[in-house]
Amino acid sequence: xxxFALAPNAxxxxxxxxxxxxxxxxxxxGWTRRPFTDWYRQGRxxxxxxxxxxxxxxxxxxxxxxxxRVPGSEPDLPPILIGSHTDTVTGGGRFDGIIGVxxxxxxxxxxxxxxxxxxxxxxxxxxxxxxxxxxGISCIGSRGMVNNLSEDMLERKDQAGLLLKDGIRxxxxxxxxxxxxxxRRGDVALYLELHIEQGPVLEQTGRKLGVVTGIVGIxxxxxxxxxxxxxxxxxxxxxxxxxxxxxxxxVLELEALCRETYAEQVVGTVGKLHxxxxxxxxxxxxxxxxxxxxSLDTDILEGIMRRFKERAERVAAERKLAVHVDGLSKSEAIxxxxxxxxxxxKACEQTAETTELPSGAGHDANQLARIAPVGMIFVPSxxxxxxxxxxxxxxxxxxxxxEALARALLMFDEKM
Length: 416
Ligand code: GLV
Ligand code: MN
Ligand code: MN
Description:
The chain is α/β, with parallel strands linked by helices. The protein has 13 helices and 15 strands. A hairpin with a 5-residue loop joins strand 1 (57-60) and strand 2 (66-70). Helix 1 packs across helix 3, helix 3 (98-113) crosses helix 13 and helix 11 crosses helix 13. The longest helix has 21 residues, at 298-318. The radius of gyration is 23 Å and the shape is globular. The structure holds glyoxylic acid (GLV) and manganese (II) ion (2 copies). One manganese (II) ion binds next to loops. Glyoxylic acid (GLV) binds at residues 131, 361-362.
């Protein structure tokens, strides 16, 4: 660092991350900023003002993404986008998503402070609701930006009865214009994102920067298991139709399937269950759970799901229960193109010790890849922890990531 003209102001980046972490729902553990809440709105309003203060034109697009734009010297060129998200999981950390947005803001400031004008326009994007939302969908804003938000998705309701399309309206978007205003191939020169790794590889290999080679696809389903509610004290063990013990057996089948050997790693998780009626003295009559599987190989995901359904039906038949599996959402796996990877690797190697690795987490880049080349840089996650309050990345490492991102931006701007 040091001699690079656009090197970030590391102290300012740290302060910005801390400021954003103040906009959180204090009634929850860790850091919680769910989309469409007041904390989310406040965080975004602060961000919009910071963007405006460094001379960016700011706007909210039809899908409700917040965008700050810096003009380029060749206005006919499509923009380069730098983005990520400021929503968090419930009980999450301070870095996931946030550092990518702050990185874009810091680069825009450094461009202005150094009088550097890019050839391409630069757009810094805070994508709406990247994490799994109460509507059963992730990456709402980036899906909308590339016209991958279906009518059916827009009509989904959260627990409070809010329709997704009304949530988008409340966040300043216009769901009726999403299709019309969507970006298409050629509209975006390149999408870049800085993110924490959220896993242990960089720390274990002693590298500060990671060039992302690909991002897993994520397939999510809702599984409903129906039995019969009955008295927990008077019903003998062999006369029960317990939806929760059946669902538990299905969860274990998923774990067993994902532990079998595959050409690519595959992981499966059930992280959300609703038990009905959820009372200590009533045999559960109905369980709904959300299941997700992830891999870089779509065939593997489809194969696992076929086998999961067979096993779930077998469990249901043995226990005289009913089971239904409904699709919630799919994001497809992507591979980062070798030209983009080569440039990002060069930018990272000029900055710090670098390695290449795939991403087991999903990102807005999965969506942007539908219309543009994408590239991502990772910085280390201490202990490989993320989606929990312990999530931590040293601020010096965040600054290295911002520097590598700025170097990559300049290289692409010159070349594309
Ligand atoms: C996003 O954080 C995801 O990988 O679920
Ligand atoms: Mn993220
Ligand atoms: Mn996340």
